[in-house]
Amino acid sequence: MGVQKHVLEITSSVSAEKMFQGLVIDMYSILAKVAPGAYKHVETIGDGGAGTIKHITLPDGAPITTMTVRTDAIDKKARTLDYSAIGGDILMGFLDKIENHVVVVPNADGGSTTTTTAIYHTKGDAVVPEENIKYADQQNTLLFKVVEAYVIAN
């Protein structure tokens, strides 16, 4: 099994508490309001804490249409979330799983920085193509900006 690591860092004028609430706790309800087509269906099994499973179906025609995500750990006080993509076509046939570690920290100016570390666990000696990592960064940044705009407006 191979391992690749990638870090995405995004800064916001929104406080760490509000950004964590929007990105982690309220994300699916926010997206249902501001981007109703972002997800075709989300089935949640669990209470949102560690062990919760989400089966997510994305719109037809998207490069990735299914994913199963497991919450591994969540700490609201420390504003951290660990979750893993463990199933669906997001694994592209050459990944065993994708671990994600999210931390939202306050900045001196009252804003925040969100850092997401993705650890790709590949099958054999497979390598995640750079264009796949760039696509994931673009999608995650877009999701972040949508949630950030909602939090600022509300």
Notes on the protein architecture:
- The protein is of the alpha+beta class and 154 residues long.
- The protein has a single domain, classed as Alpha-D-Glucose-1,6-Bisphosphate, Chain A, domain 4 (2-Layer Sandwich).
- It has three helices and seven strands; from the N terminus they run βααββββββα.
- The chain has helices spanning 16-25, 27-34, 130-153; strands at residues 2-12, 41-45, 53-57, 66-75, 80-87, 95-106, 112-122.
- A seven-stranded antiparallel β-sheet has the order 1-7-6-5-4-3-2.
- A hairpin with a 7-residue loop joins strand 5 (80-87) and strand 6.
- 20% of the residues are buried.
- This is Bet v I/Major latex protein domain-containing protein.
- Belongs to the BetVI family.
- It comes from Daucus carota subsp. sativus.
Report the C-alpha radius of gyration, rounded: 15 Å
Cα(first) to Cα(last) distance is 45 Å
So how many helices?
3
Q: What would CATH call the class?
A: Alpha Beta
Domains, number: 1
CATH homologous superfamily designation = START domain
On the 0 to 100 scale, the average pLDDT is 95
Care to count the β-strands? 7
The order of strands across the largest sheet is 1-7-6-5-4-3-2
- Tell me the quaternary state: single chain
Provide the low-confidence segments as ranges.
Answer: none
- Strand % is 35-45%
Determine the fraction of residues in helical runs and give it as a percent range.
25-40%
Coarse structural class: alpha+beta
For the largest beta-sheet, the strand count, sense and barrel status come to: 7 strands, antiparallel
CATH architectural category: 2-Layer Sandwich
Taken in chain order, the helices and strands follow as EHHEEEEEEH
